[in-house]
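User: Could you write out the 3D structure of this protein bound to magnesium ion? I've included everything you need below.
Assistant: Certainly. Input first, then the structure.
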Amino acid sequence: MRPAFLKGIKLERRELADLLAADLAKVESVMARSLCSEIPYIQALNEAVLDAQGKRLRPALLVLAAGRPGDSGEDVLLCAAVVEMIHAASLLHDDVVDRGQRRRGRPTLNAEHGDGPAILMGDYVYTRALTLLVDAGLMEVFGLLARAVHRLSVGELLQLELKQRRLLDEDAYRRVIYEKTARLIEATCRAGSMLGGRPAAEVEILAAFGRELGMAFQIVDDMLDYDADALRLGKPVGRDLAEGKQTLPLLKAWAAAPAAQRARLAEMLGDGGGNRLAIIELVRELGGLEAAHGEAVRYGERSRQALAGLPASPVRAALDASIDFVVARRF
Ligand code: FPP
Ligand code: MG
């Protein structure tokens, strides 16, 4: 089955899609082989992680950043598997922190097996990803990705702090999403372009592309929590409010609200976010979703501007198409 990333982007050239699909299939094999365990209990949990296929955005970006889809070297395929494994590990942990019950259209590991197995499988997948890089001698990429994962945890901790202090602060929100999401996508594009042997200037261009794309990605993710229908998204909507997370649609609605509606919003939020549907309704009425979408589009444009610094090529066109996928996605 083709990953959602490939179903979602419109590539000018059919053969490029086939080449990318072939590389992504190899990335799946690397992941399955690397995570495989002779211990049946671990293998069963492992299969649950692997079966819950995501969009495969990060490995696709890494392969494209490296520049030779269909002919990627072993290091590139390995590193593409590593970034997806890091991402999967972070979601295993995130679902424990957020008490997430469904993801990718199925129960989360914590919902099905409990927090302990989910945390430990997160550790298992994450440490396996890092050892793959060490075993391959890819120490520069190891340093780059280990630092990005460290910042992921900083982002998650900052988010917890914002939640606890009930802060409605757009700059603090942007810092959180940069740390928890955009940094890994930036590092993914940087790693791919380094492994692909691109000149230093192109590495910086692709890193900037990934950073801005990552910001757009998380803003859209946060919008979907107010917007999408749960079936298509594969996870319930309104979860951020239930967890007390102040994401951009709410922050934009807050900023735009006249005094009376602001007081109403404050009262509803103070209720522990109990009346979630009413809050979602008010956020929409106040234009919070449109304003958040506007910001996602602006980050998308910034990532497109970065990309314009690369020479034109089918790979650049594919990266460009991924911006539309990220900004317009409904799942
Ligand atoms: C999803 O955000 C979560 C992240 C982008 C990052 C989570 C990172 C960690 C828990 C740190 C991981 C650390 C290691 C060692 C692997 P979200 O909750 O906004 O999205 P969601 O709606 O998909 O849950
Ligand atoms: Mg979450």
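The mean pLDDT is 92.
User: Perfect, thank you.
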